[in-house]
Design a protein that fits this description.
Length: 360
């Protein structure tokens, strides 16, 4: 049984992992006490976004809470610059209700890329506040607000610190949306899909806590990318029925943001040459257990394996996934889905949040 960490154990674990830590006010004793199911046994870590801007105001919000939900609203607030502000080390109001099957899968670290699709929410779920540490990450959660690399690195380090303290693997770290069907966080450009985030955490855990990844080598030839990327946020709400072994391009039907106006609603191409990091949030219906739909960019220069989206249960229940793809293209970039099952699978909703650095 995993008992809660003492205050100094918690903070020291983060600092040993290379996290820049700041403690806030009465962090040692600020908690929700024995409400609900109390605090413990501890089974994992949940990642959230704050739906707020600004470090000081976000930290105060998470510390104090609000009328309907008193603070603390998490254990640590992760700022854009990677600083982690510790506001509590015991029970806090962050997870809410969730699926007991997800809790069991996380506790046993028994799942593949994703835990079981959650069927519960805040109103009918089990008490997650008793079992999870929670990090609130400063981000608007609107699909436009980018996640800087420093913030993502801090999420990886802070999560790995807790896993290392308990001897867990990265499967003990989940997104709020994987816990509660009411939630969508975390999401936005620059935030890896959860299997990729867990892979980053697993990579850290394979090294000592003091490990620092070797930074990528700066190319010595060619034109460097511009400092400020363009942001593109596109939506699709029309059904797209997939046919076995037939590639279907994703056409976008609405624009939230289009810099520098290089995409037209109703089209499929999202970039004409350049580097990109794109997060696609997809909702598929009709995908049964172990059935697969592939997602891949359509540019001719793409190398590697497509991302596989795998059904995880009853095909009558929708599968919602967040996938992050990175690369550089020479021609037109679009995205396509290929069903590998004979069943009728339908894409019902899709969102693309992409940062791009076009070729000069």
């Amino acid at each position: 049984m995993a008992t809660p960490l003492f205050a100094d154990q918690f903070v020291n674990a983060l600092r040993e992992e290379g996290v820049r830590v700041e403690t806030v006010r009465n962090w040692r004793t600020h908690n929700r006490g024995t409400r609900g199911d109390g605090w413990g046994p501890i089974n994992g870590v949940i990642i959230h976004h704050t739906v707020s801007r600004g470090t000081d105001s976000s930290v105060d919000l998470c510390y104090d809470g609000y009328a309907e939900l008193p603070g603390p609203l998490c254990h640590g607030v992760i700022a854009k610059d990677g600083t982690v502000y510790i506001i509590s080390v015991a029970r806090s109001n962050h997870a809410g209700g969730g699926d007991p099957n997800v809790l069991a899968a996380v506790r046993d670290e028994r799942y593949s890329d994703y835990p079981p699709v959650t069927q519960r929410g805040n109103s009918n779920g089990v008490d997650g506040n008793a079992h999870f540490y929670g990090y609130e990450c400063i981000n608007m959660g609107d699909g436009k607000d980018p996640w800087p690399p420093e913030q993502v690195d801090a999420i990886v380090r802070a999560s790995a610190a807790i896993c290392r303290a308990y001897g867990w693997t990265s499967k003990s770290v989940i997104a709020h949306r994987e816990w509660s069907r009411d939630k969508s966080d975390p999401t936005g450009p620059g935030m890896p899909a959860m299997p990729q985030l867990r892979a980053k955490i697993a990579e850290r855990l394979a090294h000592p806590a003091t490990w620092n990844p070797t930074p990528p080598t700066t190319p010595t030839t060619g034109t460097p990318d511009v400092a400020s990327p363009n942001l593109t946020v596109l939506l699709r709400s029309e059904d797209l029925t997939l046919t076995k072994d037939t590639a279907k391009d994703i056409y976008w039907t609405a624009e939230n943001t289009d810099e520098p106006n290089g995409h037209g609603a109703g089209g499929k191409s999202v970039l004409n040459g350049g580097r990109y990091t794109a997060t696609l949030n997809l909702r598929l219906e009709g995908l049964g257990e172990n059935e697969v739909v592939e997602l891949r960019p359509t540019d001719d220069t793409f190398v590697g394996s497509p991302h596989e989206i795998e059904g995880r249960g009853n095909p009558a229940l929708p599968v919602q996934v967040s996938v992050t793809l990175n690369g550089r293209v020479n021609g037109l970039l679009a995205f396509q889905l290929i069903s590998r099952t004979g069943a009728t699978v339908t894409l019902t909703d899709a969102t693309l949040s992409m940062l791009s650095w076009p070729n000069p």
